Structures are given as structure tokens and as C-alpha cells.
């Protein structure tokens, strides 16, 4: 069933074939991709486009009469000594505004037929993709799909509506102005056309690179945000694993990428401003410069003023509106539409099958409580430790004393908020106690000893882009292949290794399940084999059998193991159990706790029977 549900890489998205932007993602720029995919959408709506054009003709008439009326009012009216005729022509120019208002109503009526199908198609596509993604990546939650169904499809709809309105208005205004200039004096076109064509050409030339830069910028921004989010979530693990420097270097490189992308975008924006100036400001300037020569050569003053009316009242605002629209909303629209043309994510291989945990627990290297000189010194010790998250806060740990022998396996249990994670952090030296003392090997905790004495693994596992070998050897760079193989075998990492192909194949954290993240982090700690390992929900994404296997693998190491446990089975595997219960906190074997701790009796009764079975 699983194999059937897979989605092939670059397979066309399921969903409406006639909907907008169908098909796989070709290897071209975002503008070319979106244009190619938009063509069939527009072709299917030729009738709507023609009706929009029909209404827009009224805008053509308004523009044409705006300049022509002024020219005639001057030449045939006021300058010819016929003020009434002049006023009549001005009235014609003014009345032409009324049908244009009618056009606006008609245009808005038709607009919905062009805009809503786009939105519906995008939503259908995003939902299809989310469903395919969910089948291919059952463990993933797709924030992107949610954003596409809601936010991004709305941006696309609004952007598309704005673009249609502006583009339509631009085309008919320019056509009206050109027709007016031709009617007044064709030579006028020769003067204003070159800067118009040059500016428009320059502007159009900036579209593809701007679109690509905009996408680069967005990608750099998203990559940085994703990295920052992961870093924040894994902060404790990063600190515990001594990966701070590496993380800072990665963040810096990503921030540099972002700055580079922003600079490049800004450079192209500069070119666009120049295009706007050439297109909008140069034509009236040129016309004024040529005015003396034109007037001497027979151009009437009315035609000159009419031409200036076209350039300043119609052309310049239309060019400005179009360029502003394209560079703001247009850019966003392009990027959003391009995202919808993305191929669905490649399928995850089948997750590793849960490992059977039927092998007997391996022999322990060190017996807790043994009387060797080494065992006499606890690997970690809390001496009347008090810890509060602020001067006025109630202490989470209140004069807690605890001693962990080398090789001992301790499980920590308790209700939510009872302080299990806090204890793990204090024990691992990540948090400093407000009172009492924490000692490792009988000595006060020193930051310098951190990674050599203990590894703390919280729920969010730290996995970086690189090979499996690099990830596993992170805390022990000199580990040889035999040790690596032993760790892989002990933790059940073989299915992942088989899928990757080799220890040196590139491992991309985003393509791994959360369980695989945890297995890699566990493998790293296992290979390092420090004197103390603290697992704080570090196996929460593993099934009970894989969790049991991991805990047995750690228990087989010579170091001590402290596990914040959420299953009774996990607690029962330990040599001792610490029940966090405020002033009634108790520590002992399961049999002892059944007698001494009411909370343990309750928890043991509440936990599922199959938790105990393995
Ligand atoms: N960074 C923090 N700042 C302030 N209070 C905190 C902080 N972290 C934990 N606490 C509080 O300290 C108490 C103990 O939290 P802790 O996370 O150690 O409990 P827990 O037993 O591990 O809980 P859970 O099983 O839900 O993870 C809780 O009341 C919690 O709200």
C-alpha cells in the first residue's frame, strides 16, 4: 500500500488538468515558467478576456478625447476667438470621463471570471499536493501547504486582480494616447516614441533577473529562518554537544547569502528606477525641448498642449502605475505562482522497520554498587541541589541529593512539570543550581569537562547536513569503521545506512524522519561513549522496540545512563528509578518504590500493560 501511495519526483501534480499552472517544473527561470503555465489558463478564458477588452475600449475613448478636446478647444476655440467652441470641446473632453466610469463597473463584473478560477485552481493544487505529500511523508506536517491554501492563494488572487486591472488600463490608455498623437500630428510620435520604447524595453529586460533575484532572496530568507528555528529548538543539544561554533559559522554563512541576495535585488531595483524615469519623464521633456522647432514648422499651439496633456495626464501615470504594480505586487505574484509550480517533494523511502527487541539484554560492564576503587567515586552527584527559574519562582528542585555510580542505569519519572528535564539539565551541567553542588567524578562541574564527561540528548535531535559518518563521529572524530559498525548495529541504524547507500553519502536532515534524527543523535552519543549519558525524551519518536534496543545499547556501555522515561518498560529496564514528586521524591528499585511511593504505584497502574511487556 505504501509503495502505491508514493509520488514520483517531478510527476505532474494531481488535480484539475484544465486548472491554472498545471504540469511539471521545467528547467527555466520563474518568469518563463509562470508565463508558460499561464498561457493555457488564459486561452481557456478568451471570451472573458475579450469582454474585458470591450469594456476597456471606453477608457481608450476617454484618453483620446482628453488630449484631442484640449487641442481643439485651443486651436478652434479660444485661440481662434471662438470661446463658445472652445468651451464645447472642453465639455466633450470632460464628458468622456463618464463612460469611463461605466467601464470600471463592467470591468469589475468580468474580473471575477478571470480571478476566482485562478484561486480555486491554486487551492485545489495545494490540497492535492498536501495529500500526496502526506502519503509520501507521513511524519511531516506541511506548514507550506497550509500557507498555500490560505495565505499564498489569497496573495495570488489579489495580485492577479491588480495586475489585470493595471495592465488593461495601461494598454488602452497608451493606445488612446498614441491614437490622439497621430490624430494631432504624427511627427509628435517620432519624438516621444524613442524614450517610451527605450524605457519600456529596459524595464521589461529587468523582469526575468528581478524575478530570479526575488526568488533567491526569498529562498535565502527561508533558509536562514529554518536554520534559526532549528537552532533555537536544538539549543540545549547544540550546547551539550559542543556544536556552538559550527552553528554560529553556519548562521553567518546563511546571513551572508541573504545579504548578497538583497544587494543583488537592490541593484536591479536601481535599473528599474532608471527605466521608469526614461519612460515617464523623458517624453514631455523632449517635447518641450523640440517645441520651438515644431511650432516654427507648423505645429499648432493646441496640438502641443494636447500632446503634453497625453504625456503628463495619461501616459506618465499609466506607466508609473504599471511599473509600480509589476515591481511590487507583480514580483510577489510571480514568486507565489512559481511556488505553486514546484514539483512535489520527493518521496521518503520506507521508514526503517521497527527492530525486534528479542535479544537478551547484554551483560553490563560495571555493576552498580560494585566496590572497585573507580566505582567508589560517583560519576555524577547532586548534593542538596536547589534550582528555581528566577529569584521569585518556587524551586523546581528543592535540596535534592542523588548519586549516580559509574555504569549505573537510572530512570527518572514523574508527572509533567515535576522537574525531570530540569534535573537532566542540572545533572548535565547545562543549568547551574541556585543552591547545593553538582559534582562529576567528585569534582565541581567545569564547562571545560563538559563533552568529555557527559552527553545530554534532549527530544530535538541535532543532525547537520553532511554524511552519516560525519554526523556519527561528531563527538569522536577519530572513531574507526569497526566502532562505527558496532554503533550502527547496536542502535539499528542499518536500514538508514542501506537507504543512504554508504556512510559517506550526503544526508539531508529535512529528508529524515524525526525517529531517524533521534537515532543519529543517539548513535553519536553511543559512539562517543562518555562516562555519563543523559537522555531527556531522546527516544520519544522511536517505537517501544527501537527504544528498548537503544536503551540496552547504552546500558551495555561502561558509562552511566540517565533516562527521562515515559514508559514503564523504559523505567523497569533501569537499575534504579527516581520518582520526581516534589517533597515526596523517592529513588529505588521498582519493588522498593511500589512500597514507598504512592505516585509510583499510581503511575505503574496508569501505564499501558504493553509498556511493560517488552
Ligand atoms: N525555562 C524555563 N523558565 C521558567 N520555568 C520553566 C522553564 N523550564 C521549565 N520551567 C518550569 O519548571 C517546572 C519543571 O519543568 P520541567 O520541564 O523540568 O518538567 P518536566 O517534568 O520535564 O515536564 P515534562 O514532562 O512536561 O517535560 C515546570 O513548572 C515548568 O513550567
Automatic annotation (TrEMBL):
Q: Where is the composition biased (Pro residues)?
A: 13-27
Q: What's in the keyword line of the UniProt record?
A: ATP-binding, Membrane, Nucleotide-binding, Transmembrane, Transmembrane helix
Protein species of origin = Kitasatospora albolonga
The record's subcellular locations are:
Cell membrane
Where are the residues of the annotated region Disordered?
1-34, 341-371
Which residues does UniProt assign to the signal peptide? none
List the InterPro entries hit by this protein, alphabetically. AAA+_ATPase (IPR003593), ABC1_TM_dom (IPR011527), ABC1_TM_sf (IPR036640), ABC_transporter-like_ATP-bd (IPR003439), P-loop_NTPase (IPR027417), Type_1_exporter (IPR039421)
Indicate the segments forming the ABC transmembrane type-1 domain, all copies: 146-330
Any one Gene Ontology molecular-function term assigned to this protein's record: ATP binding
Q: How does it sit in the membrane?
A: Multi-pass membrane protein
What GO cellular component is one of the record's annotations? Answer: plasma membrane
- Identify this protein by name: ABC transporter ATP-binding protein
Q: Where is the ABC transporter domain?
A: 380-606
The record ties this protein, via CDD domains, to: ABCC_MRP_Like
- Chief place where the protein resides: membrane
